[in-house]
Amino acid sequence: MRVAARLIDGLIMVVIFVPLWFLVFATTETGNGQVNTSVGFGGFIGLTLLGLGVGFANEIVLVAMKGGSAGKLILGLRVVKASGGPADWGTAFVRYSPNLVSVIPCLGSILGFVLTITNLVLVFSDTNHQSVYDKVAKTYVIATR
Predict the structure, then answer these.
(1) What is the pTM of this model?
(2) Where do runs of H (alpha helix) occur along 25-88?
């Protein structure tokens, strides 16, 4: 269920980002017959900040206010503290913090991929099915249905 929830979260990101990607990186004719596909560093930074914002909303705001990301909520999963209580703002932020490795220049994509693989291995092999996020924030994901 957790993998399916993550796939739903990923699908939400794709639905948001694909149109924006094409909008930001659309080719434009310069007027002299040349095609310009570069938006420069500003466009890249803008998309990165937008991605962090959407991730913040899905993984911090929804976890703190509703108990899970959109994917988790759709599938009836909730994030709880080790004490059994609901995740609060601090817990949600700490839980999201490993994702910040993905914004490290040059290495972010590689580190993000390693984080994804590590999470998959842990969710399937850890006795408590805790991901890196859960271990860092001392949380568990539980089924509510």
Answers:
(1) 0.79
(2) 40-56, 62-66, 70-74
